[in-house]
Specification:
By secondary structure, the protein is of the alpha+beta class. Helix content is about 50%, strand content about 20%. The strands form five sheets. Strands 6, 9, 10 and 11 form a four-stranded antiparallel β-sheet that branches. The chain is rod-shaped. It starts with 9 loop residues before the first helix and ends with a helix.
Length: about 425
């Protein structure tokens, strides 16, 4: 399909046009200028306007000067509209922008905050109506307090602090943080990095000022870091800074260099003190349980002895009562039995016996078995049992024989008979 109005533009941009560079077709060209040069810009503009007028059905050849001038003005207006349309198109597409992953776009309208955009392809009204700023909210930022770039590059005005026990301490630490609100980070802080540094320094001075020196140096370092993290987050939230503190790391905690040697001596003395205390405690833990065990054993032995004595006494009492009851029933038999038992107990522990025979001759009785047994026991230094070798009963004189020889026994019987 042919488009008729495109033919009207063909003479304008055709390089094969015989009139190219020779002026207009109406014969008003300047004959004084050379005809073989390139066309002038004014002539090109006039030809462009005439072609536009012909394209929209307006004839520029007839009608006198009035219509000709009117067609020229309309063509000029149309050209301006086209140029403005093209410029407006490029102006509108300048409002497109791309936000990468982990970033946030903050859009402002005439300098005032409007909204935030996520990652991806976004559009806003072009400048000067709206503008945008891209903020990286996933980046972990770091601020250093007490040093710069390396712990060796100390800053005494930031690192020296006073503890609760009025000791000076040198602390170097780093704070890592991320952004949780890009708009607050951009528009609520005038000097962003310096603000975070000042908040960190204020927090650490408050925490250290409430703590003892030994706590900060040794057992309480992790607690100090956690307290600084918590206090910093409270202050930053109160400022609406849009900052999220992720970590507080203690790089170096030590006394000032001027008193380092004296402090090392004091620390060594404290360590010796703790060591001696531990040794004393260990000795006490070893001795006290033994002493308590010995005391408990002695108490138990005493209690056992007490119980044994009481039981023996009670047993003897009961036995005596039983013997007394039997004695009251048969005094003579009971007395003879008691006598025999006593003699048996005495003779069982002796090695020599004098026996009074019937013919009134003294005879020595030597129990050889007991003498031999005692000799063996003396060599082995072990006491030989004597209860196994008892004098036979038939060798012991009867009560009647002894009664004939013993006047006291006879008198006693007579008294009992009476």
């Amino acid at each position: 399909m042919r488009i008729p109005f495109l033919k009207k533009f063909r003479p304008l941009f055709s390089l094969n046009d015989p009139e190219w560079g020779r002026g207009a077709k109406d014969g008003k060209r300047d004959d004084k200028k050379p005809s073989d040069g390139p066309p002038e810009l004014d002539q090109l503009w006039r030809d462009f306007n005439q072609s536009l007028a012909k394209m929209f059905g307006k004839n520029g050849d007839g009608g006198g000067e009035g219509p000709t001038s009117g067609n020229g003005s309309d063509a000029a207006k149309l050209g301006v509209v086209v140029i403005l349309s093209v410029a407006g198109f490029f102006w509108m597409i300048s409002g497109f922008f791309i936000v990468q992953e982990g970033q946030t776009g903050v859009v402002t309208t005439f300098g005032k905050y409007s909204y935030q955009t996520g990652s991806g392809f976004n559009w806003r009204w072009p400048t000067p109506i709206q503008s945008h700023e891209i903020v990286d909210v996933q980046q972990v930022r770091t601020v250093e307090i007490g040093y710069r770039n390396s712990p060796k590059n100390k800053l005494a005005k930031e690192s020296l602090m006073l503890t609760d026990d009025e000791n000076i301490i040198d602390i170097q630490f780093a704070v890592q943080y991320k952004l949780k609100d890009a708009a607050k980070w951009l528009y609520n802080n005038s000097n962003k990095e310096d603000m975070v540094l000042q908040v960190a320094e204020t927090a650490i001075r408050e925490i250290v000022g409430k703590s003892k020196m030994d706590v900060v140096l040794y057992e309480g370092r992790e607690k100090v870091a956690l307290d600084v993290n918590f206090l910093m987050q409270q202050v930053l939230d109160r400022y609406n800074s849009g900052v999220q503190v992720t970590n507080v790391t203690m790089q170096a905690v030590q006394p000032p260099e001027q008193v380092q040697a004296a402090f090392d001596d004091a620390v060594k003395a404290g360590q010796d003190k703790e060591r001696q205390k531990n040794e004393g405690q260990a000795y006490a833990n070893d001795v006290i349980p033994k002493a308590r065990g010995e005391a408990s054993r002695m108490l138990q032995d005493a209690e056992g002895y007490r119980s044994r004595v009481i039981a023996n006494a009670e047993g003897n009492t009961a036995r005596f009562k039983q013997v007394l009851a039997e004695y009251q029933k048969a005094p003579a038999v009971t007395r003879d039995r008691m006598y025999l038992e006593t003699m048996q107990q005495i003779f069982s522990s002796t090695t020599k016996l004098m026996v009074d025979a019937k013919n009134a001759n003294n005879m020595m009785y030597l129990p050889l078995d007991k003498i031999i047994g005692q000799g063996d026991s003396s060599q082995n230094r072990v006491a030989a049992p004597v209860s196994n070798n008892v004098t036979p009963v038939d060798t012991i004189p009867t009560v009647e024989v002894r009664a004939n020889k013993d006047n006291r026994a006879r008198d006693a019987r007579e008294r009992e008979g009476r």
